[in-house]
Amino acid sequence: MNQPSLETLRQKLDETNRQLLELLSERAKIAQEIGNLKEKQGIPKFDPVREKQMLTELVASNKGPFTDDTIRHLFKQIFQASLNLQVTDHKKQLLVSRKKQKEDTVVTLGDDVKVGGGSPVLIAGPCSVESYDQTRTVAAALKQAGITVLRGGAFKPRTSPYDFQGLGIEGLKILKEVGDEFGLKTISEIVDPAHVELACEYIDVIQIGARNMQNFELLKAAGEVRKPILLKRGLAATIDEFLHAAEYILARGNTQVMLIERGIRTYEKATRNTLDISAVPILKQESHLPVLVDVTHSTGRKDILAPCAKAALAAGADGVMVEVHPDPATALSDAAQQLNIEEFGNFYAQVRESGLLG
Ligand code: PEP
Ligand code: MN
């Protein structure tokens, strides 16, 4: 009998490829359906026991010429591809995702300051609320400059337990009093889930700091209230981890979340952290939430705040945060990096001049 020609064999192979593709696509659709069912039932997508079972059955039915190991290897690839498909589908469902919501989320601070609506906001204030007078002095200067949002830490997550830890609730009360006097919206960091509800009485925005970006109980507590949340990127958090942290808040029903890039740890020592400017357009692409940049904590350098703020705005940031203290040399935290009021004036003028603040 004549051997089939190379051409005939190749045609057979092409046909088999097509059939395999059809079967693989069919299999992928079934896997997607399973993924959706698991999603509804809250069952994990990856099931190692089931995978092992399938591999055992396949190997038992293997009549060659592929070895059992090769069959295992090939099917593991197929299983992984199906799992990836389920996870990608799942990602589309994230509440923070642009795929879920196309329009930008606009966060309203108090009843009139909008963040994410196309007109960038400048948030300024001391690292820590140290006293009524210190806070009031900064607030008066900021108000005069036309700033609408005042920041100030009352609960300070310090590296050393011997450093100033903040005035606590007393600090929030000072912020409220000063904010009310000057009609400024206020932001302060909360570190304890038990304080989230209480903090709502005093401040307009709850900040979750870099060190707490993955404090999941705090994120859940922030999701339970209906106050805007300013979520800082963790010291070594990937963008994906950052977005998932925000997802914790949205998943509990609080949609008023702002993301803020504050620099990440790298080997670079010229700045306190490395400002990841690329995070701004990536976050804006991936998510509908407003994205801000903290130029103070990311750089730790007063001399480059203005160009970094301009870069942030040019990259599409919805706002910039900067620390201002009446007398930085005597500040109880971050003394080296806070601007005094005159320096703030120069910084603000430079940023405004760029036309990027709107
Ligand atoms: C802050 O903004 O006061 C602060 C402590 O920043 P971070 O959490 O980004 O270090
Ligand atoms: Mn600080």
Write a brief caption for the model.
The chain has 358 residues and is an alpha/beta fold. Helix content is 46%, strand content 11%.
Mean pLDDT: 96
What is the CATH architecture descriptor of the largest domain?
Alpha-Beta Barrel
Query: How many domains, in number, for the residues?
Result: 2
How many distinct helices?
A: 12
InterPro entries: Aldolase_TIM, Chorismate_II_sf, Chorismate_mutase_GmP-bac, Class-I_DAHP_synthase, CM_dom_sf, CM_II_prokaryot, DAHP1/KDSA, DAHP_syn_2
Domain Chorismate mutase: 1-90
GO biological process, one term: chorismate metabolic process
Pfam families: CM_2 (PF01817), DAHP_synth_1 (PF00793)
Keywords:
358 residues; Chorismate Mutase Domain, subunit A; alpha/beta; binds manganese (II) ion; binds phosphoenolpyruvate; elongated; two-stranded antiparallel ribbon
What does this structure look like?
It is a single chain. The N and C termini lie far apart (83 Å). The chain has helices at 6-41, 48-60, 68-92, 132-145, 169-182, 196-199, 216-224, 239-251, 279-286, 295-299, 305-314, 341-353; strands at 107-109, 113-115, 121-125, 149-151, 185-189, 205-208, 229-232, 257-261, 291-294, 319-323. The strands form two sheets. Strands 3-4-5-6-7-8-9-10 form an eight-stranded parallel barrel, surrounded by six helices. Strands 1-2 form a two-stranded antiparallel ribbon. The chain is of the alpha/beta class. It is elongated, with a radius of gyration of 27 Å. It contains twelve helices and ten strands. It has two domains: 6-87, Chorismate Mutase Domain, subunit A (Up-down Bundle), CATH 1.20.59; 107-353, Aldolase class I (TIM Barrel), CATH 3.20.20.70. Strand 6, helix 7 and strand 7 (229-232) form a beta-alpha-beta unit. Phosphoenolpyruvate (PEP) binds at residues 127, 153, 189, 209-211, 232, 262, 294, 297. Manganese (II) ion binds next to loops.
